Amino acid sequence: MSAPSLGREVHLVSNPAGLPAPEHFPVAEAPVPRPGAGQLLVCNRKFLVFAGLRTLISREADGFQVPPLKPGEPLFGPALGEVVAVGPGTAGVPVGTLVTHLLGWREYAVVDADAVRVVPEDHPDPVALLSTASAAYGALTRLTRLRAGETVLVTGAAGGVGSLAGQVARLLGAGRVVGTTRSPGKAERLRRELGYDAVVVRGDGPLADALTEAAPDGYDVIIDNVGGEQLTAALEAARPGARVGLVGALSGQFDPTLAGGTAPASIDTFRVVKLAVTLAGYQDAEHPGVEEEWRERLTHWLRTGELVHPHVTLPGIDRAPGALQELHQGRHFGTLVVEI
Prior knowledge:
It comes from Streptomyces xanthii. By secondary structure, this protein is an alpha/beta fold.
C-alpha cells in the first residue's frame, strides 16, 4: 500500500488545568513524513488510550521516563500498524510486516527500525500487545514475587491493567484473587468472565471493611493501580509480611482537582512497620527483559485460552479526542483502543 501526502494526527492544543476534554485534542492534518536511513513508515491500525496521558499533558509531567507533551505536538502511545515503506539501507523489517511501537494517535508514523517489535503472523490477538499490563506482570514476578496459594488484591481491577492482572496472578499460582471497581456491573463481569473470587465495589460502605470481608485472613500481595483511598484501605487489610507493588496512580490521574502528576494517599506507617509490609513502585527501565518475557507468556496464555484480553474498540480517529474522557469516566471494561 502507498501512503498519501497527508495524514491525520491528534494534537494537544493546550495543557488543561483539570481533566482533559475533547477540545484539548483536535484532529489535524499533517504531511506524511518519508522514512530515512534506519527508519520505517508505519500505517497505524489501532492505538491505546491510557491513563498516563493525563500525566504527560499536565504541568507536573517533569521527571518521568518519557518527555511531557507540549501544545502543538501530536499525542503518542502504544500503537499497532503495518510497515508501508522502508528507508534507505534499512533491513530486517520488510513492507507488510505488522509491528507495535510508541507513536500512536496518528495515521502514519516514521519509527526507527530498532524501536518496533514485530508481531508474529500467527499471533492470536495482536491488540493485546498494546496493553500496559506488563507492569502488573513485572510487579507480580519481580517486586512481590507471588508464591503459590497466596491471596492477591488488585485495585482498579476492571481497567486495562487490572483486567489482566487478576488473571495473571491466578496463572502464577494465587490461591484467591480479589479486585476493586466502582461499578456493580463491572464487578459481575470480573467474577463471571475473568475468574475473580470476589470483587469489592467502591462506595458500598467502608472500603477497608469490605476488603477484609472479601479476604478475612488478609492479603499477601497487593497490586495497586489506583493509590489514594484504595491504597489506604488495602494496607489496613494487609497480612503480616505483605508485599505491595505500586503500578499506577489512577486516583490522581482521574481527579479533576489535581493536575495529573500527584496521587496523595494516607498511609499508617505504624501499621506498615508493625506488619513488616513492603511497598515498591514498578518502573520498566529497572527490570530489563520483563517486557519480552511478558509478551511471550501473554501470547502463550492467549493461544491456550488460559487468559482472555477484554477490550473495547472505538471506530475512527475522530473518536480519539473524546476517548481519554471516556476512560476517565469509567465507561468501558478492559483495555480501550481506537481503530483508525
